[in-house]
Design goal:
alpha+beta, Glutaredoxin
Length: 79
């Protein structure tokens, strides 16, 4: 499974969520694609004030803060 983290390099919440995902990646084995929204005007407009946003495909799992319970539930349902 591949999740996407909409990210900004200067965003402390983005870095925190990316770091919090590491043990969950090790536990569940999902891939993480980190996308800098500032490199794409369409993504920047879509996700501007929501970053960080964690997605599975087009489905938003959480934004601003990692909702670990929601992510765990999502990962268990998908596997």
């Amino acid at each position: 499974m591949k999740l996407t983290l909409m990210f900004r390099e200067y965003c402390s919440l983005c870095h925190k969520m990316r770091d919090q995902l590491l043990p969950l990646r090790q536990e569940f084995g999902f891939e993480l694609d980190v996308v800098d929204v500032d490199e794409d005007p369409v993504l920047e407009e879509k996700y501007n004030e929501l970053v960080p946003v964690l997605l599975h495909g087009e489905q938003e799992i959480c934004h601003w803060f990692l909702d670990e319970d929601k992510l765990r539930t999502h990962l268990q349902v998908q596997s």
